[in-house]
Amino acid sequence: CCIASGLIGKPVKQMLFDDLSVSNQYDGIWACASILHLPRRDVVNVLQKISNALKTSGVLYASFKYGSYEGMRNGRYFIDFTEGSLGNLIDGVPSLQIVDTWITDDVRPEREERWINNLVRRI
After folding, report:
1. In tens digits, what is the pLDDT along the chain, a chain of 123 residues?
2. Number of other CB atoms surrounding residue 24 within 10 Å
3. Any idea what the Cα angle at residue 26 is, between residues 22 and 30, rounded to 5°?
């Protein structure tokens, strides 16, 4: 957070989604490979909390493993998404609008996974 804060010239916080209870406070929220550990039923609630916390035109970056799996993997819970399933999920939060979605390959040599990355704006 200190490095990010220095780079953007604004305060940066790290917190649990359960602790996100503010309204109209953040320009951006970075959720890189973090929301993917929630059951599908909880993801929309977290997206709504994120939307509430973002200022109008605020941006969310979120990434998920690419696919259709949901359940335990290597001792941790995962939910994967495709373009369609992630779009449908985000449509469940009317105040959020997808700006861009792109697929990347995992750069770690021991991994052969793909990631879906999503940039979303609060409208």
Report:
1. 889 889 988 888 899 988 999 999 999 999 999 999 999 889 999 999 999 999 999 999 999 999 999 999 999 999 999 999 999 999 999 999 999 999 999 988 888 899 999 999 999
2. 11
3. 110
Secondary structure (DSSP) of the chain: -HHHHHHHTS------GGG---SS-EEEEEETT-GGGS-HHHHHHHHHHHHHHEEEEEEEEEEEEBSS-EEEETTEEEE-B-HHHHHHHHHTSTTEEEEEEEEEE--STT---EEEEEEEEE-
Reading the block at residue 32, the tokens are 């890189």
Q: Which residues on adjacent β-strands are paired with residue 117?
A: 63, 102
Token pair of 34, please? 């973090």
